Amino acid sequence: MAAKPTEASQIISEVAHAEGGTTKGSKSAQMQSELTKQRNLEETAANVGSKLETAPGSITKEDAQSVHRAESRALHGQQPPSGSISSRAQHEAAVNEGAASTSRTTAPTDPTVQSQMDRQANFEDAASKIGSKLVNEPGNFTKEEADTLHSREHRAFGYTEKGGLASQAQHQVAENEGATTGR
Q1: Residue range 17-71, pLDDT digits in tens
Q2: Residues 6 or more apart from 178 whose CB is under 8 A from it?
Q3: With contact defined as beta carbons under 8 Å apart, do 122 and 115 qualify?
């Protein structure tokens, strides 16, 4: 028996029909992409959220990265906010990595765990401060600010998310430089 289509699927189907079919870049393709991103986030968040509730000691770095990617994609490349499921998973994963050699406490004593938490906090601080300028004053955004975001994101997570805040910042700088040089 086939699954009953959801309301969102029906709407996408109607839009595709009105467009004469789904083609790359079409409104229906974009809608399907957004729906898929949201469903992926819901599924990943449910799995990781369940582990956070029932067995936080089992959260791995891979779990945290998986939910972070899904959440970031669903947020159109924006970094998930503090307190989100991905930030909670990243915190637990960092604690768990240090738990193998130390007992679990509210304040980690293992320097590597504390260092990871500090790097994430540094990124979140920079993302909050510099990210708001990117939104509110994009024409005044500087290369140094973009470089700071890129560096802190890479240090915190080991990579920079394609389409993420650092990527958007670098794009804005390129636009700003293009506007000033007349390109």
Answers
A1: 888 877 788 887 888 888 888 888 888 888 888 888 888 888 888 888 888 888 8
A2: none
A3: no
Which residue type, as a one-letter code, is found at position 30?
Q
DSSP string, 96-122: HHHHTTS---SS--SHHHHHHHHHHHH
Neighbours of 158 (CB within 10 A): 11
Q: How many whole angstroms separate alpha carbon 139 and alpha carbon 134?
A: 8
This prediction's pTM: 0.48
Q: Which of the two residues, 180 and 74, has the higher pLDDT score?
A: 74
In terms of Cα–Cα distance, which of 175, 130, 176 is closest to 152? Answer: 130
Radius of gyration (C-alpha) of the chain in whole angstroms:
20
DSSP-derived secondary structure for 17-77: HHHTS--TTSHHHHHHHHHHHHHHHHHHHHHHHHHHHH-GGG--HHHHHHHHHHHHHHTTT
